[in-house]
Amino acid sequence: MIKTDDLGIKFKMEKRRRSGALAFLLERSRKQRRPNGEFWALRHVSLTVERGETVGIIGSNGSGKSTLLRVVAGVYPPDEGKVSIDGEVSTLFSLGTGFNAELSGRDNIYLDGIMIGLTKNQIDGIIDDIIGFTELGDFIDMPVRTYSSGMRARLGFAIAIRADKDIVLIDEIMGAGDVAFRQKAGVEMNRIIGEKTVLLVSHSMDTIAQFANKVIWLNKGVMAAMGEPKEVIEQYLAASKVKKAPTIIE
Amino acid sequence: MWYIVKFQMKAENKNKVLGFLWSFLNPLLLLITYIVLMQIIFRRGGPQFPILLFIGLLSWTWFASSLIRSVSSITSKMGLVKSVRFPLAILPISGIIIGFFDWLFGFAILVPMLFIYEASFTVNILWLPVLLLIEFIGTIGACLIFAVLGTYLADLDNIIRFLIRIAFYLSPILYSVADTVPERLTTLYMILNPFAGLLESYKNVLVLGMPPNEYALVGAAVCVVLFVVGLWYFSRNEYRLVKAI
To answer: pLDDT in tens for each of the 245 residues of chain B?
Structure first.
């Protein structure tokens, strides 16, 4: 179960983030240092996701969807409010950004598994399954930097779904693969739905409508709506002034 | 922790055709450069100069390379840091352990050299693990601090390389304190550079068969303080770091 109560995540907003020490000194001496603004990536978010639910998260770019997943993954501690997570969280690898590009796919599976708290023996037990699912073939022993984005997505999805954790976070991984992979991923999703708690971020309303039993619409860090997938998607599309839901040609 | 070190080493070594061989070649080539520079060009140093130099270089390189690694240790793993929750201190500390493996490779070259240059083996060699532990603790402290600063300040990498270069010449690596620093200034020098005592001690216990330099105590004290401050500073900033990258 995932429960947030008045959750807020705040970022410092500087004109130039991560500027250098040299810039710091120069600007200070010239009294040019700009006041640091604050920016709430998420605010007043109160939600409850029961065990076994599949919740879709929608919203325009920068609305806080990925931030919310990172909070659930434990990466960002709340600046405001409370978060309680009951259960172990699988990896959040949105399009495989967490991979070490120099290591092979196989090594990345191990590294990843260890990071989310699996033991080497546990990974040994599931690695063939994961590799089989990715259909990467010989590429599994090549450095990840040689992978296409679709291949990374396959690897990320396969690990997230086969790690057998209670809570599965999926951030746009579904959209990147080819048709065959999407179908395969769909089958896999249906298998875990009801069994695991799933948070699914996607811009594809079809994907959301297909899998989610509840949808959260985030708008500028605030929860604009939560409820029945159909209703929330309609509200969101109406607000985004999209006349018709974009359809994916399969 | 062990796996992260292992995988990071794998990632770093895979780029190199010679792989592990470089871990031997790097210190050796560096050593040869300085021997040519000091003994042939400047005509400095006694008969045991190469071995004393090598010991200094090894210990120094461990510290310096760890520090340089630590500056970018967190930003370079941005994807991972933003995806999974784990104690971020693992990142700079794994860099130190990788540096220690390089030290071990260097030590493998050092051992035959100790025989060639007729080092005096005494019971004082037992101090070596103690010295290494002190250096390890101090390096952890320094690296934790610089891992935080390096995440906030993008140009710290340039600054740290410059500072390390200066510190290198200020430390008794290319020279020994007894030969170079005037006697009346020795105390001042050893206190201003708390690591000088440690570097001298490495030479004492390995080559000269003497106990550690008394000023190593200053170095040890500074290392313990660094360690405590580093841990405190890092844990205070750990969560802010995730948002800063």
So the answer is: 777 777 777 777 655 556 677 777 888 888 888 888 877 777 776 778 888 899 999 999 999 999 999 999 998 888 888 888 888 999 999 999 989 988 998 998 899 999 988 888 888 989 999 999 999 999 999 999 999 999 888 888 889 999 999 999 999 988 888 777 888 888 888 888 888 999 999 999 999 888 898 889 999 999 999 999 999 999 999 988 888 77
B153-161 contacts: CB < 8 A, separation 24 or more?
Answer: B153/A18, B153/A19, B153/A20, B153/A21, B153/A24, B154/A18, B154/A19, B154/A20, B155/A20, B155/A21, B155/A22, B155/A23, B156/A20, B156/A21, B156/B71, B157/B68, B157/B71, B157/B72, B159/A21, B160/B67, B160/B68, B160/B71, B161/B68
CB A224 within 8 A of CB A70: no
What residues contact A160, with CB distance under 8 A and at least 6 apart? Answer: A90, A91, A92, A93, A168, A169, A170, A173
Which among A18, A97, A107 has the least Cβ separation from residue B10? A107
In A34-178, which ranges are continuous DSSP H helix?
65-72, 105-115, 120-134, 149-162, 173-176
Chain A residues 11-50 with a CB less than 8 Å from chain B:
11-12, 17-24
Q: Which of residues 132-161 of A touch B (CB under 8 A)?
A: 143
Whole-angstrom distance, CA of residue B231 vs CA of residue A77: 20
Taken in order B66, B71, B72, B77, the sign of the CA dihedral is: positive
Select from B14, B71, B85, B145 the residue whose CB has the most chain A CBs within 10 Å, as the one to mutate to test that interface. B85
Question: Which of A18, A73, A100 is closest, CB to CB, to B152?
Answer: A18
**Strands A54-58 and A197-201: what pairing?**
parallel
Q: Alpha-carbon distance A240 to A217, whole Å?
A: 12
- Indicate if the alpha-carbon torsion angle B146, B151, B155, B161 is positive or negative: positive
Chain A CB contacts of B4 below 8 Å: 111, 114
Stated pTM of the model: 0.84
**Max Cα separation, chain A?**
61
| Stretch (H or E) spanning A198 | strand A197-201
B243: nearest CA partner in chain A: A11
